[in-house]
Structure formats: C-alpha cells, structure tokens
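Appendix B: a complete holo record

For completeness, this appendix reproduces one full record from the ligand-bound portion of the collection. The bound molecule is zinc ion. The inputs are the chain sequence and the ligand SMILES; the output is the full three-dimensional arrangement of the complex, encoded as structure tokens. No fields have been trimmed.
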Amino acid sequence: MACLRTSPAVMTAMLELRPSCEHCNAALPPESTEARICSFECTFCAACVRDVLENVCPNCGGGFAPRPIRPAKNWKGDNFLGNDPAGTKVKHRPVDPATHAQFSARIKGIPPEKR
Ligand SMILES: [Zn+2]
Ligand SMILES: [Zn+2]
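The structure of the chain with zinc ion bound, as generated:
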C-alpha cells in the first residue's frame, strides 16, 4: 500500500475502493460513509448490509465494517486519492434474497468474530 511504498508486495494488496454496491448498484464514492466492506473487500451499501444481507457477506459469510475513507488531500507522503484513486470497475452481482436467506440462516446468529 502507499503507506509502505518500500514493499512492492504490500503495494498490490492496497484496499480497492469499489465504486458501487454489489447488490443494488448504488454509487459508493470514496468519501461515502455508507460503504461497507468484508475482509475480502466485497463492497455493499449500509442499507443492503442491514436489510438484505443481515451482516453476512454472500461471498464469504463474514461480517462487514465501515470502509475507511482515503484522504482527498495529500497530507503526507503522497498517500491520498490523487495518487491512489478509487476503483472504477463496477461489480454488480445482485444477491437472490431467498438463496441468501438460506445461506445466512445458520451464520447470522453467530457474531462475526466467532464465525
Ligand atoms: Zn446496496
Ligand atoms: Zn466477503
């Protein structure tokens, strides 16, 4: 990641700021406080995580956390959006509510830290 420019291996692992919710396709610009991610960077809006996914990622079964906001200004060492912009590749894979309900039934009652 940009904070650790000396390590190329880490650079490739920088958080990908995806542009939209995977389920409803709502725009999630880098400054959005509505963006939620799982540990694999699956990206959804807060409403879908709450109402559709019930805090169970449809791809990995993990929980979600608010996506950190990358600074828009160059406060230090070029670690900002101007140097590492948000992603533009839309990933729209709507979840089938019935399929997800089945998948999440045995998972949602377990707190993410115990899954
Ligand atoms: Zn959504
Ligand atoms: Zn996931």
